[in-house]
Amino acid sequence: MSESPIGRDTPQVNARAKVTGRAQYAGDIQLPGMLHAKVLRSPHPHARIRRIDTRAARALPGVKAVLTGADAPDALWGVHHKERRILAREVVRFAGEEVVAVAATSDEIARDALELVTIDYEPLPALFTPEAALAEGATGIHPGRNNVAHEIAFERGSVEAGFAQADLIHEATYTTHAQYPGYLEPMATVAQVDGHGRLQVWASTQSVFLARMRLAAALELPVSRIRVMQTTTGGGFGGKIVEDANSLIAALLALKTGQPVRLVNNRLEDFLGACSSLPERLTLKLGMTREGRIVAKEVTILADCGAYCGLTNEVMHVSAMRSDNMHRLENVRSHAVLSYTHTPPHGAFRGFGGTQMLFALNSHIDTMAEKLGLDPVAIHRLNAIQAGDTSIHGWEVGSTGLMECLDQCTEAIHWAEKRGRRDQAGRRRRGVGLAAAMHVSGNRTIGNWDGSTVVVKLNEDGRALVHSGECDMGQGAMTMLSQVIAHELTLPIEHIQVVPPDTDTSPFAIGTLASRVTMSGGHAAILAARKAKAQLLALAAELSGHAEETLTLIDGAVRLRDADNGEIVADLATLARQHIWRHGGEGLQVSATWDPQTRMHDDDLYGNIASAYSFAAQAVEVEVDTETGRVEVVESFVSDDCGKAFNPLAIHGQTNGATVQAIGWALYEQLQVEEGRIMNGNFADYTLATADAVPMLASGIVESNDPKGPYGAKGASETAILPGAAAIANAVHDAVGVRITDLPITPEKVLAALRAKEDADHA
Amino acid sequence: MSEHRIEVIINGEPVTARVPARRLLSDFLRDDLGLTGTKRGCETGICGACSVMVDGRLVKSCLSLAVQADGQPIDTIEGLADGETLHPIQECFINGGGLQCGYCTPGFVMATCALLAANPRPTTDEIRQALNGNLCRCTGYTQIVESIHHAAEKLHGN
């Protein structure tokens, strides 16, 4: 009997193609007559385009198109604000903005053609910081508007009354920097117009349907004239949702040339064209009783979305309010402002605004714990929201494993023994730090629908084809869907084939964001499989004459329930064929949709937006070199409450990857932006951690079995990135007594803080 | 641009080609020969996604020219499996969770081949050091290192 894959380490179902080099990514596609595209970007953060001379480029043999803003549709694209053109027209607003696109018969010719384009720019004064952009009298970066891209303000309870009850009030400001997503596959698209005049797009994307919607709007085409197919996607981390221009430019070139066009970013172009995470300055004021109970919380955020705001309105929203739901709070106030600047745009990034605020909040709790003479773990426990609670913003917490997460972390890192080793004398000092986090599993605010549809077709050999529009970008969505269908239909997982998302054939789907795919897609898969199973049992009953309730599905066959060894009535292959070959028959095909019973928040931002909430905690041990200021993470343990681990191998993989991404953000990765220009847009100067720079990671799983999750599961790909930076900052403080509030924690900052501490100690 | 005639042996098969002097080995493999398992990730020799073996040495094919490989055997990810039978390193990356998005995987697998040829039973630290020419953004490396331990065990026993 084949065992259910649910809960077992299950290798990725598409891994074979990946290890043999046969997985096809967009940049691997080669179509007959395919052209190669290249993009010329603005070197100026703000300039007027006086004139573009493309004549020499167009005259170069092999060049098929040289497009400028004048060739692009008038439509503007964007998420909340439609404000961006496929190619800039008249004005450029950031260094890196796409100005000219070329398609040629080879990559080399396209590159040579770019060098023949001359653009006469009139540089204009640029606004590089939110402070400058929001100053009185500052010029609007977009016509007819001031530079506030978005603003959020709310108060619940009475913050004043809360602070009046507090025994300790602490206020501090934290700054968080932009992180480049750093997926190994740069953005890539192949586009062509087929013989029927339809635009076909193969893209590296997290959402084929959002991609289609955006292509339709930006190219002024009916949605039905466009087909988007997801190719194997080499990582996304939020960067491949809807905010880059790559697929729009490829599609425009295909429409203009009538030939297939491939546009693959090189790494520098990807640094310039992709959105990095949202830099925020957060001021946090907390009031606590002497026991550590939080009685008031006030948050002020100033965020910089760059030249175009994309998804950052939503990102800032998360920073401003999500962390409030982790705790039993009565009094909160938040004011957040998002500012445009003449800098490269920011956007969605794994954790989606949670990382920024949780760095501030967990640093703050650590600081206040010390002032109150408490263990920060005790403060986390005392304030933690509990299963069955409704949070201050109306979130209904059906499960939380945070207490167990804290237990696992403190035990793994030997918290009690290692915390507060004040007697260290040597050059290298060690410390431990901890942080806690919460995340959503789905999000109704995307558009008042958070559903997912799965179609199951049973082939004549009794094996299943599964259609879902939810994208696998490496996190394992296809494996998750395969596990669910295999489990429900009692088939070996090898008998399940998940078809890659394709807007022509897949059911509509929002895509991979907000940790929603296991929640919504998982539920839809369960429903679809059970529907298929019901039809199989009904057909078997009809054909065999047995009563339906005497039949069951075991090990890929319909069997008699009561028979000692489960006498087979019919196997699935036979039933699949019999489902077709009869009067009124058809291939067995079912569709099921699951939309969570969540609520769009109201005008006051109140409402249960997700069906479940995942939690995580992390403890790290760091070593600080007091002579160089270098911080090294020597041990890390992340404990993830993912509800139910369908696939521990994948959960640990997600957790480990998130952990290193968080270590990178906290310690190594920093975009150097000077006068609005990214100066280190390559992997030599923007340093991703290598295997020898990080420790072997340990992680634990807590199964809180959410009552609303599929088999109890919640999202598990984002939560683990949330606590890392604060855990490290807290460990640095534990090691050497300095508090870094300005990320990243560079050796320079640590040394400066150590010197300042020494001066203060001697004063 | 001058063109050159080169003769190489790709995954055991002799290949003769004319290439412009400036053609990178990675572009030659991918665009001229259709061996797209070798990936382009950074074009500056940092990420290692384009790693191949040239005459038994691990080479970043985005940093070498096709003409430099003239007369030498080149082994790419496509040549590693024996027909339908995967190489033990490939098996171990699959079963150990040593891959997620898969884009860096061919490079890591080739780097592992080079490592295990030189050092059949590496320690964890030796593996971590040996991989510092390859970037992965998905796995955090831990399951890659574990996969390589399993592969070493499978290939070379205890």
Features:
heterodimer; A: 763 residues; alpha+beta; Aldehyde Oxidoreductase, domain 3; Aldehyde Oxidoreductase, domain 4; seven-stranded mixed β-sheet; five-stranded mixed β-sheet; 19 helices; 30 strands; B: 158 residues; DNA polymerase, domain 1; 2 domains; 17% strand; globular; iron (chain B); 2Fe-2S-bd_dom_sf (chain B)
Describe this structure in words.
- The complex is a heterodimer of chains A (763) and B (158).
- In chain A, 28% of the residues lie in helices and 25% in strands.
- Chain A is of the alpha+beta class.
- In chain A, strands 3-5-1-12-9-10-11 form a seven-stranded mixed sheet.
- In chain A, helix 6 crosses helix 7, helix 9 runs parallel beside helix 10 (354-372) and helix 10 (354-372) runs parallel beside helix 18.
- By secondary structure, chain B is α+β, with helices and mostly antiparallel strands.
- Chain B folds into two domains: 3-79, Ubiquitin-like (UB roll), CATH 3.10.20.30; 88-156, [2Fe-2S]-binding domain (DNA polymerase, domain 1, Orthogonal Bundle).
- In chain B, 33% of the residues lie in helices and 17% in strands.
- Chain B has helices spanning 25-32, 88-95, 105-118, 124-130, 142-156, and strands at residues 3-10, 13-20, 51-54, 57-60, 73-75.
- In chain B, strands 2-1-5-3-4 form a five-stranded mixed sheet, covered by helices on one side.
- In chain B, helix 2 (88-95) packs antiparallel against helix 5.
- The N and C termini of chain B lie far apart (54 Å).
- At the A-B interface, helix 1 and helix 17 of A face helix 1, helix 2, helix 3, helix 4 and helix 5 of B.
